[in-house]
Amino acid sequence: MSDDAPRRQSRAKQPSSYRFDQEYSFLDDESGSARSESQASDIDEPQEDGDDFMPDAEEEPEDDFEEDVIESSEPESEDYSASENERLVTLELNIVETNSDLTLGRSDVKRHKGQADRAPRSKVKVPIHITRGGGVAAKAVAASPLRTRGVADFTKAGGQEPILLTRDYWARQETLPVRNPSSLRRSFHESKKARAKDTSTTKQWYAETGRETFAKAQKSRQLRAEEATPYLSNSGAESLNVLCGPVDNPQVYTLKKLSYLNVAEPFKEKKNRRGWLFNLGSRIQDAQWATNEEGSIQYLAVAVEQRDKAGPHPKLLANPQAPAFSATEPFPASIQIWAFDSDQEGQLDISKQPRLQLVICTDWGAPKQFRWCPVDIEDGDQPVEEQDHVRVGTLAGIWSDGRVRIIDVSYPRSASKSNETHYLHLSQAAFDVAIPQTVCTCLKWLSGTTLAVGTAIGTLAIWTLTRPDTMATQQDSNPRPWFYQQISDTYILTVTSGWPSQPHFISITTADGFARLYDIRTPNADTTASIRGRTLCVTQDWHEQTQSFIAPDEHYMLKHNPIRRYYHNLYSMRAESIITRCAASPVHPGILIGGADGRVEASNPVGRIANYKIIPWQQTWFAHEWRGPVGNLVNKSKPTDPDPADMTDDNPPSDPSAVPRAFLHHPLVRITEGYKAFQPGIQHSVNSKKAANPEVGKGITIYEENSAVTVLAWNPNLKVGTWAVAGLGSGLLRVEDVGV
Question: For labelling alongside 139, which of 235, 390, 519, 685 has CA 20 to 30 A away?
Fold first, then answer.
């Protein structure tokens, strides 16, 4: 844009694609197989210099219902190339696996773009003048018979039936899910035909192409336990003291690295407590459940914070190289695969100990984020008992070297029978991509074979594994995305999609405070933004039951942005600190949120979204608090034991209220649970006993960094949908069947 052009002209313009040394310039070439340029708009965008929030002045008479006749029989522009038509058809077959009633009228759009067999259209009446409060007319730039909204039509698919069925089916679930097989089911908004088609397509691709490609391109070798030690090391302490149990009689447990504790151990009543508490040493970076619908073993992939010991260690907030925008040098790191057993009813079987089944060792830097393929792929027609390897799933991840990779995860069946940990070193992945002059920041599966990746410069790249040359067999190859476009002017923090019912909708949160919704079928025409937030939104998820995207805001509340009213916030939950993580389940309407104070809250927001006058219920799953050594505190407390020299872990003091000095010199974690459900409301309560002082603002509590909730995830498998996992900044990981 030139310097003479008005500034307001740039508001309605879409940012163009980035080009780096012409490596991705093929995406803007009409002769290429795929393009990232905007589709031809049905209506010319106005470029007048005027306020975007005020209607344009008109000289015509301002009649309320004046209509003009538009001649549409003129020949259309022929700039719609065959490659673009092929791209749209391929996009429909590979991405938009939805109910036929929920898809747009693509055939009408194709005829509009110049097909020879289109039906001629002569006269279409479109309202041109719409009067507003001051009598000023505004152009009806969106009044085109060829444009529809990117959501289902109420007259065809029904608008209220799915949400009413959802409300009535889960009426008993106020907060935590009900421990009953009938309380778990797929969404009423989802099409069974679409899921079956997506599953069939993914299985067919893996059987015909995927398995062989992974076997040839993915380079791996087995390691001994001694060789894998550098890949498991982190900067955390070798042990951690945990105070948990009843409030009136808590117990202290010392957990070493890679050890675990039954959550029912400190309590007398152990019947309805099914879960484990792990100490992995350092901050939990990510934790995700693998897709395994029919198996009795559930796999959890976990990554902890790891740093390069040989590299530089700049101080916090003092790195001039901006690590969020630059890649790190390769160093050893790992992803841990833990296995958990379930009983016939789908509950967590606490009679069988959890085990570290597999450790994926790499030299690609620290794993930053990863997601399992959402479609369960059977490993061929051979019986499971006769297979040499146990396949866990397909894992897509982002490492700190700035690259995104897709790996096929499996381990020898002999390791599962002996309960031994298998250490696997990967040196090459079948899908290994780096985007020029930027780093990948977030990713999301759009279907069983399609992956979307956001970058630090605001671009979005999408690959489909079924397309040719996507799965590389050469180490130096860099598969090109079929979609690569600038959708934001700044850093993309999160990306998520409306899979499985609305896979074509993509929602992103960026560093400018906005959240944006795109329909990837027509990304330049169907897009909208949410209300701008004042803080960075570092977490986002799709709530299938209410057809909305959930994310936190600066008021410590959880907002819903429905696809029909994405620009409006509907609030359903409230926390007492900044919400750091949120998670929604695909098999029940439960939502989990975690805050900087270490509290994890659960709720069912369906009633609130269906009727906004309803005050939802909310319940605390558990609360986590971390404190460092007492000697490092600002206000040092004196030990209460009478003789510190005689106080050891094996020789506790006679006074029950005395605190041994050994516990004061080491970090301590306190976990409390057993909270009752309550109705917090949306507005924060005001203590009427205290006199209001307008000169003093509301205080903001600063919590310890290690107290924060860093990971939340529901198990996506139908039979075990009540399982949840929570990762904490202290290095603790809690896995529990939270069904009540």
Answer: 519
